[in-house]
Design goal:
globular, 4 domains, 634 residues, alpha/beta, Rossmann fold, Elongation Factor Tu (Ef-tu), domain 3
């Protein structure tokens, strides 16, 4: 490096040990375009002497070639690593940089200012302890300032540095500085910040970055670096309630069984009584390991904990103290930041990952979305890319959690696409739904097995899917007739008939189609619980909803029947004249024309209606059912 201290040059082991003992502060910089975020970070790296000689030489060359400061060093180039950013002079992605002083280590995330990169900013801010919000002294508080402040508050950042930058361009005016502070604090009073520290500065000139500036004799507060070195971090709070999500059951041999994970809050020591959630079982801590036995473990450390009792505990469970145990629920009110091009649809099934626990989750309702520029709450049917909304979620099983406000590690989650494994959204648990505490499964003596035995048959669902005009309803009707002749108890749920009754309140938007299938899937499950064979005939255009319907049933009791008819063939049939109307623009969201159809990838039964008549297709299905043993009782 350009300036290595004496300890580093004379005793590397002592230097590393000293460095290891330093606390770590994670912070972000955010602000509007050209407020100076990248320049500020570059200045911090440069002044803290965390630049290698070859980096410094490259920086000087790049500054002359593509910088914005003439022959002077352009500090922003230390951070704007993407070629597109250098060409446009803006930050697109989240750039992480590490530096250190004698007192503390730092990881800083330079987050993008544009609204279309909201998801990038939320990603960078999700682990931060502090946000440096830059304001151009010439322009004051802008819409983006408010947006970034809201997002920082949303993801749990409680400490703010209000970096009023480019003071050199307003002659270091105290009046300008005070006016901006007053306007910002008036806006931020509705947000959940614990401290707001305003600092007048010039990132380019270095005013009030590392040392006090002679240009602002009226300013009595700390420099930016001093404040960063002393501000409390989340990891430093050992008084918080103990929380450790279990990442791994450590069993190297028969004589050792420990539970490994990152302590997300509080501390733990041998002898402490703990509770395993969500089961609620209790035990005592017998040992705490890091490199060896430890007297205690604290937040931010990855440890292995041994318990005095052989109790059931596995990956995804959470170890907590008994005085303030974590909550357990399967229904929540949450805030979602949507991060995918495909819109969020209420009723659709996703995977939810909370710590090491992964469960199935359904967005049961979108209560409202939030305009991140004005904080206005508006009604909506779905969330688009970069939009933020308050929703209710229902999970396939209860999970242990804290509210995000209390603990970001045990209250934050992501939603994942069930097919692509893409991350779709970042979520923050606000609270469990009260109704979840009032609803319990009622024990019933007569179960689905007894009902099926009474009818002398095996219950299952035949789910017919295909384009309009493919022949689904016709084939399903013929199959049920054959089942009836065989003495089977069955029922048919047909798309048109259901929309006259149960789902008459639904239209044909993507959200309504999702809800249409969700309701039918639940009804199908209830009917198989009654011991019936269910034939469900629906276009059901989306794989996600068909998969959701499948997962409601025991393995082997859901058979997807793909009535495979090319669009051109279905359109020539057009028994209801719907394709003609759709082509004329008289019907919106028509599957195959203006709305997509996602064909099954691995259906149990595929029917090619270009080569089979409806009667032949029905016979093929009955033959497949017999081959699978679904029409006989063992």
């Amino acid at each position: 490096m350009s300036d290595q201290n004496d300890l580093l040059s004379t005793d590397i082991e002592a230097y590393l040990h000293q460095h290891e003992q330093k606390s770590l502060l994670r912070f972000i910089t955010c602000g509007s375009v050209d407020d100076g975020k990248s320049t500020l970070i570059g200045r911090l790296l440069y002044d803290s002497r965390m630049i290698f000689e070859d980096q410094l030489a490259a920086l000087e060359a790049d500054s002359r070639k593509m910088g914005t400061q003439g022959q002077n060093i352009d500090f922003a180039l230390l951070v704007d690593g993407l070629a597109a950013e250098r060409e446009q002079g803006i930050t697109i992605d989240v750039a992480y940089r590490f530096f250190a002083t004698e007192k503390r280590k730092f990881i800083v995330a330079d987050t993008p200012g544009h609204e279309q990169y909201t998801r990038n900013m939320v990603t960078g801010a999700s682990t931060a302890d502090l946000a440096v919000i830059l304001i151009d002294a010439r322009r004051g508080v802008l819409t983006q300032t408010r947006r970034h402040s809201f997002l920082a508050s949303l993801v749990g950042i409680r400490n703010i540095v209000l970096a009023i930058n480019k003071m050199d361009l307003v002659d270091y005016s105290e009046d300008v500085f005070n006016s901006i502070i007053q306007e910002y604090k008036s806006f931020a009073s509705g947000l959940s910040f614990e401290s707001i520290v305003p600092i007048p500065m010039s990132a380019l000139a270095g005013d009030n970055i590392l040392t006090k500036s002679d240009q602002t004799p009226w300013y009595k507060g700390p420099t930016l670096m001093h404040h960063l070195e002393v501000v409390p971090t989340h990891d430093s709070d050992r008084s918080a309630s103990f929380r450790m999500p279990v990442q791994w059951v450590n069993r190297p041999n028969l004589d050792f069984r420990g539970f490994s994970g990152l302590i997300s809050a509080g501390s733990v020591k041998p002898g402490d009584r703990i509770r395993v959630m969500p089961s609620g079982r209790e035990s005592h801590v017998s040992r705490v390991f890091l490199d060896g036995d430890m007297e205690f473990g604290i937040a931010g450390q990855s440890v292995t904990i041994c318990l005095a009792d052989e109790i059931d505990c596995s990956r995804g469970d959470v170890l907590t103290g008994i005085d303030d145990p974590i909550e357990v629920s399967d229904q929540f009110e949450v805030t979602l930041v949507w991060m995918n091009d495909a819109a969020m649809q209420p009723g659709r099934s996703y995977l939810l990952k909370l710590g090491a626990k992964t469960v199935t989750a359904t967005v049961t309702a979108l209560k409202h979305k939030v305009n991140v520029n004005t904080l206005e709450q508006t009604t909506a049917e779905h969330l688009e890319l970069n939009e933020i909304g308050v929703c209710t979620l229902s999970l396939s099983q209860p999970v242990a959690f804290d509210s995000y406000e209390k603990n970001r590690e045990t209250g934050g989650f992501i939603l994942i696409d069930r097919f692509t494994n893409d991350t779709l959204a970042a979520g923050m648990i606000r609270s469990a739904l009260r109704r979840a505490q009032n609803i319990h499964w009622q024990s019933i003596d007569i179960d689905r097995t007894a009902r099926a035995r009474q009818k002398n048959q095996k219950p299952f669902v035949l789910w017919f899917t295909g384009l309009s005009g493919s022949g689904k309803s016709t084939i399903a009707n013929l199959v049920e007739r054959k089942l009836f002749e065989l003495g089977k108890h069955s029922t048919t749920l047909d798309g048109d008939n259901i929309r006259h009754q149960l789902n008459k309140d639904l239209g044909f938007s993507d959200a309504d189609r999702v809800e249409n299938v969700r309701r039918v899937a639940e009804v199908s499950r209830l009917m198989t619980d009654a011991g019936l064979i269910v034939l469900a005939s629906f276009i059901s255009p989306f794989r996600a909803e068909r998969q959701m319907a499948r997962e409601l049933l025991p393995s082997g009791e859901f058979l997807e029947v793909f009535v495979d008819t090319p669009l051109g063939v279905a359109e020539t049939r057009d028994p209801k004249g719907l394709y003609k109307k759709a082509r004329a623009g008289q019907i919106e969201n028509f599957t195959g024309i203006s709305s997509p159809y996602e064909a099954p990838e691995n259906p149990e039964i595929r029917i090619d209606t270009t080569s089979l008549s409806p009667e032949e297709a029905a016979g093929t299905i009955i033959t497949e059912l017999e081959k699978r043993g679904l029409l006989r009782i063992d």
